[in-house]
User: What shape does this take?
Amino acid sequence: MSDTDAGPDASAASDGGEGWFEALPSGATEDTDTESDAAARAAARVREGTAASPADWPVRAVESGFAAGADEYYDRLKAAATRATREAVRERERADDAQLIHAVRAMDDAERTANELAERAVEWAGSLFDEVEPGIEGARAVAAREPESEVERRAVSLAARAAELDDERAELAETIGRTAPAVAPNLSEMAGPELAARLIALAGGLESLAKKPSGTVQVLGAEDALFAHLSGRAPSPKHGIIYTHEYVRGTRPADRGSAARALAGKLTLAARADHYAGERRSQLHADLRERMATIRARADTDEPDAAEADDE
Amino acid sequence: MSEPTLPDGVERREIAGEERLATRGEPVYGEPTADGWRAWDPERSKLGGMLELGLETGLTGGETVLYLGAASGTTVSHVADFAGPTYAVEFAPRPARDLLDAAAPRDRLFPLLKDARKPETYAHVVERDVDAVVQDVATRGQAEVAARNARFLADDGRLLLAIKARSEDVTAAPEAVFEGALDRLREAYEIVETRRLDRFHEDHLGVVATPK
Assistant: This one.
């Protein structure tokens, strides 16, 4: 045990840095009303402090008067470490997958509603003004007009709402771009933040995505086609939402099945790494790049028969 | 399976009709219990596997421990049951949330959300001269992590390390991975004993070492 043995060199503290308790007020001299501040500061020091090398902190804490004895030191360390860890966990998890799902669904709703409203607004405006362009851009142009009558005011106002909703959509996309890499670093790096968020939303969460087999991930978002296939009415879908990924869309049609299968396989591993480990796995990304290069090289050798024949 | 190598506070107890390793403490993960003793499943814990296989861990009970890769706290909760002050380092927030629950009823188990590859981020909290560093991190460079954390260990302290071959290189033969890791380890430690843990953990090597 090294906690209470104040050996001869115990006070000869290493100069590797200060302990988490140093520069904190000692418990005995503080007023009770600042106790919670002191606890918050102690937790912050545990979280943010550093030292080049450890020292005999329990002994140093007693010598400096921070604690009366080793037991009191460990009690205070327990409180500070628990609080620090709870805060850090909460902070890292606040950007969690549930929030990401809300954001991506809100973004889709904002986009769909903005388009619908814009369509209505420009159709109306077309009956009032000359040269009205279609779509969101048309609505923005209408919104900039000076209305001269009651009905013009309504049509211009409606166009302004559509434009605002489109701004909201853009801001939601920015939020997703910032939070997805925090929630799922590997998945976001591989798929891009938006597709990563959509995959998580379709699966119902990062955990359920991590537990899905890669064949399911491959056709997420193509449920209609999948069920048509299962009831014998259609061929099996090659890809779902992952079609939006450059690796699938940018591959020639003959090789898209292979590309979708390879991408889905690595996306599944990325989701598992994100959920279970939470750290970046560079090997995963290198493996996918290599696999995609192999698949795309088929187009150069151009043997159409071989394109779908081999799986791995 | 030499009986005397078990630390004080770890016993073989009859639990649910089977003789099993056990420690005394609050249950953490739904493990079977009997008379206040909780079964320590060697298949869920590398250190449990090392004790079950009879490695000379040097653990006697009551020591100060630095545990790297605490995850949800399955193993470290058993360690805290028989050891003294126990520092539990875990990097991923999700398991750390469960670790907080495991640590709550154990007043000398200190949870820390830190990266074991960066000891300077917790050297201001973890004391020096700990009696044992237990390491079970599933990242590449496991020997490097052990070498960087040698600074915490007392001269006569022990490193109890489980090396997972697949975390280093999924394609290479485990033997080759272990040899490479041991070479790196020898720069900071003297290897006392190694043993394959395959009976409980596939492609894992248990290592007992002491600082150079």
